[in-house]
Design brief:
Layout (H helix, E strand, L loop, with lengths): L1 H15 L4 H12 L7 H20 L1 H5 L3 H24 L1 E2 L5 E2 L4 H13 L2 H15 L5 H31 L4 H23 L6
Antiparallel strand pairs: 1-2
Helix pairs in contact: 1-8, 2-3, 2-6, 2-8, 2-9, 3-6, 3-7, 3-8, 5-6, 5-9
């Protein structure tokens, strides 16, 4: 079981480290919010979404669901709309000075947008189904549970650490310039993911 647990840790860490819309959004909210507690909605939502995707991948449910073209079409279309709108809001978000925030995301917006950038992200779906789901096939019983728990644990720890790093950066940025730059970078990455989804939108026959 220990070998499966370590395998899950290393695998999940390798998949979650690369810069993407989800990571940038969590870091961005950590930096933009006036306190770390105010950024917890995005952290918890992102972690819960990853947990859901991992569980579905390990159980094989997600692979079965995505064999239906109409479901993939709805997911990609909805994802494009959410991400395009989220990118626009992020681009136009204006931080204040000395810890004040103007136009920062409310808890509700954090939840909605974190869920959209997590569940409608083609890279996240392919990673969980194609890599984690496939890798879990080599385990059974307690070993599979150990592998699964390790993958989930990495997500929770990573997103909390990412928001903490963002909050630290936000506290050091008294002029608001860093957060404005992060907003622009985050928006561009989110729009790129949206364009990718639109380009790969599976059309119904």
């Amino acid at each position: 079981m220990l070998e499966a647990f370590i395998h899950g840790l290393v695998l999940a860490l390798g998949l979650i480290l690369p810069l993407g819309a989800q990571n940038v959004f969590v870091f961005n909210q950590g930096a933009a919010q006036p306190s770390l507690v105010r950024a917890m909605p995005v952290v918890i939502t992102a972690a819960l979404c990853d947990t859901l995707l991992i569980l579905l991948a390990v159980m094989g449910v997600s692979l079965v669901v995505l064999t239906f073209t109409w479901i993939k079409t709805i997911l990609f279309a909805a994802g494009f709309c959410f991400l395009a709108y989220m990118g626009w809001l992020t681009w136009n978000s204006r931080p204040g000075i000395n810890g004040e925030t103007h136009g920062s995301f409310s808890a509700k917006k954090q939840v909605v947008f974190a869920a959209s950038v997590s569940l409608f992200n083609p890279h996240a779906i392919l990673d969980t189904i194609g890599v984690i789901g496939t890798s879990s096939l080599g385990y059974g019983g307690s070993e599979k549970w150990g592998f699964t728990i390790a993958c989930i644990l990495v997500s929770w720890v990573w997103f909390f650490t990412l928001s903490l790093a963002g909050r630290t950066a936000g506290r050091l940025d008294t002029s608001g310039r860093l957060i404005r730059s992060l907003n622009r970078i985050s928006a561009v990455i989110i729009w790129l993911v949206a364009v990718y989804m639109a380009a790969n939108l599976p059309f119904l026959p």
